[in-house]
Amino acid sequence: MRVMGIDCGTECTGFGVVDLDSRDKLVCVSFGGIRLSPREPLPIRLSTVFDRLSAVIQQFQPDRVAIEEVFYSVNPKSALKLGQVRGVAMLAASSQKLQIGEYAPLTIKASVVGYGRAEKEQVQLMVARLLCLEEIPEPTDAADALAIAICDLHTQATLMRQRAGA
Description:
This protein is α/β, with parallel strands linked by helices. It is built from 5 helices and 5 strands. The protein has helices at residues 42-60, 76-94, 105-113, 120-130, 140-165, and strands spanning 2-7, 12-20, 26-35, 64-68, 99-103.
């Protein structure tokens, strides 16, 4: 199974593509960040996110896409902009008929580190370790996207085992 994780952001949207092979080994396929200029109007930034994510989806052909759920923000304007980026990311995936998994930040951290309140650095180190990478993926948004993909793969593998046992 191949999953593309997306870490939505208004300045940088990270993506990461991870395979779970037949031996249940996680394999990093690709990762990166879509950097956005805050000087560009929001509609242009949203179009850039849609076009770049659509291209990554077409290039790597994931089976699913996973995105972090909206978290509550102190700044309502920032939360709205982030929600718009999430909507565009979901549109890029759903327009290519892909199922989308959404996960809370605590769930992602617990899946990758084993502790839902883990620090960002702990998540990044564990992502590198789980994917046998020599360095922490950059930008940090890409490491977060890989963590989201790993969370989805763990969740889907568990669901498949439960169905098989039923």
